[in-house]
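G., the chain you wanted modeled:
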Amino acid sequence: MKFTANQIAEILEGDIIGDPNTEVSTLSKIEEGEKGSLTFLSNTKYTHYIYSTNASVVIVNRTFVPEKEVKATLLKVDDAYTSFSKLLDFYNQMKLSKSGIEDPNFISKTAVLGNDLYIGAFSYIGDNVKIGDNVKIYPNSYIGENVTIGNNTVIFSGVKIYSDCIIGKNCIINSGVIIGADGFGFAPNKKGVYSKIPQIGNVIIEDNVDIGAATTIDRATIGSTIIGKGVKLDNQIQIAHNVEIGANTVIASQTGIAGSTKIGSGCQIGGQVGFAGHLVIGNNVKIQAQSGVGKNLKDNEVVQGTYAFNYTDWNKSYIYFKKLPKLVATIDLLEKEIKALKEKE
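Predicted structure as tokens:
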């Protein structure tokens, strides 16, 4: 799809310097710009590229004044970075503006479908499913019985949503996500043989949640696994049964959260963090990458660290580790006193 500089200027409320009829059909980095592409300049360390780029249109700040000839048509705006982000969102919406129901597929006669849907080929919609307006379900997706999906949610190819789960409005669920698989519940007998504990709960995803590719969220044993409003989950995260994550918490890739742990709102969790089960993590907690969290954390704590040696030894070492700054200060003081005594001899 092609757009002229003039059409883009109308979207961004910008001013054109150059040919308003210049056409673009793709986006690019400024250093990799080719004819027919649009790019932007906001960081001054990339300024030199604007004189050599082959991009057809460049979005710049209104304060930008070229020092020599620029081949591209310039589009001046208040904030080039914000405007380019707005354009990316507009472009993405255009790209994803699919509608209609493709064949082949299976849609249960008891399913309730909203308006302006897109349901891709080879999708399965089970009994008593309720799908809101403007929902997009891409090919090869599975929606189990009694699932509810709110308005404007996008479910990309290959997503599996098991029975009884609830998905809110304006969510984005990326390819390969599995919501509602059985939690990891097994009980050993006296012979060491494990018997499966039925997992009869569900998963509730609240509004405005983004879930990255190949992330898995297990159904509760009883009750619900809950992902709060505005939560952002990266790719390849494991969330176990009965976990609760508070509103607007963000979690990076490869984090694993064991069963029944409760994480507060506004938390920031780095990649490859591991949580033990049945913990309570406060609000606005920050956890650095590769940390191992084995105890409750209070509001606003910032933590880092991983342990992986004998459990008893670790507990003893941890007592000294917490005192390490004080011990170092004590050693420094002792060294100064010893030095002073030697100088008197």
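Residues 312-345 form one domain.

Shout if anything looks off.
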